[in-house]
Design goal:
The structure holds two protein chains of two kinds. In chain A, strand 7 and strand 8 form a beta hairpin. By secondary structure, chain A is an all-beta fold. In chain B, 0% of the residues lie in helices and 56% in strands. The chains are: A mainly beta, B mainly beta.
């Protein structure tokens, strides 16, 4: 599992509330990614980080922000959750060594009512 | 728009048969290709990666890459019921080497 944990694993919230999801890794990987997975869409990249305080947008970044103040933690924030953000969120890390291999965390199932 | 297309499935094969999963990609500059397996309610699990044209074998799995045709496939020999899952094709792209995924093919291996 490449030492990745995500919290919470499940969350139900209401429209308009802020939500923060946490990804924690123990193996000091430089690159970290947030994806969302929806039926019929596969996994889509939300944001990624290439180091502490270095982040950039992915394909579906609207409505999301991220922060990385420590190598091991990558936070995804929904400032004001909407029902369209109901999804399963996966964090991933990219291993070093030039193989571009990514390993995924266990995921967080978020429901916005 | 970089795209990765997979057979939507579902695909059903009998136990012991060869399952063939296919994927095409639009970015001719892509260099790295991955197959992930995802069981229902679980996270994607890496099966194989391939960079060079031709075949790459790992146990019962064989990945095939044809860059000229922009085509990647995964063969599963001697399919088992435990292989029943959704298989995701992914292609590396962009400066951050992020993965672009296909929507996945659901495979069912019938006992």
């Amino acid at each position: 599992d490449a030492g990745i944990t995500q919290s919470p694993r499940h969350k139900v919230t209401e429209t308009g509330t802020p939500v923060t999801l946490r990804c924690h890794q123990t193996e000091n990987h430089r690159y970290m990614y947030w994806y969302r997975q929806d039926p019929g869409h596969g996994l889509r990249l939300i944001h990624y980080s290439y180091g502490v305080k270095d982040t950039d947008k992915g394909e579906v970044s609207d409505g999301y922000s991220v922060s990385r103040s420590k190598t091991e933690d990558f936070l995804l924030t929904l400032e004001s959750a909407t029902s369209s953000q109901t999804s399963v969120y996966f964090c991933a890390v990219r291993t070093s060594g030039g193989t571009d291999t990514q390993y995924f965390g266990p995921g967080t199932r978020l429901t916005v009512l | 728009q970089k795209e990765v297309e997979q057979n939507s499935g579902p695909l059903s094969v009998p136990e012991g048969a060869i399952a063939s999963l296919n994927c095409t990609y639009s970015d001719r500059g892509s260099q790295s290709f991955f197959w992930y397996r995802q069981y229902s309610g679980k996270s994607p699990e890496l099966i194989m990666f391939i960079y060079s044209n031709g075949d790459k074998e790992d146990g019962r799995f064989t990945a095939q890459l044809n860059k000229a045709s922009q085509y990647v496939s995964l063969l599963i020999r001697d399919s088992q019921p435990s292989d029943s899952a959704t298989y995701l094709c992914a292609v590396v792209s962009g400066s951050a080497r992020q993965l672009t995924f296909g929507s996945g093919t659901q495979l069912t291996v019938l006992p």
